[in-house]
Amino acid sequence: MDPHAAILAGSTGLVGRAILAGLLADPAVAHVHCVGRKPPPLVHKKITAHGLEGTDVPPLPPASVLYLALGTTIKTAGSQAAF
What we know:
Layout: E1 4-9, H1 14-25, E2 29-36, E3 47-51, E4 65-68, H2 74-77
């Protein structure tokens, strides 16, 4: 399989970190573009971080797959029921 690029939005959360680890371990993935308010949780030669400025999403390079791991925390939601 040819190496491909992936885009991951939300690499700092619980699910996003797990997706990122899987992408970095996959030899078919040549590059991971992480989009978010905070930088990715680790530094790796396959990762390029794309920070968000307010609600503006920066132009992103072509990729063969996009993962959205956006969510919230119970603290932000206010309760287990709201979460």
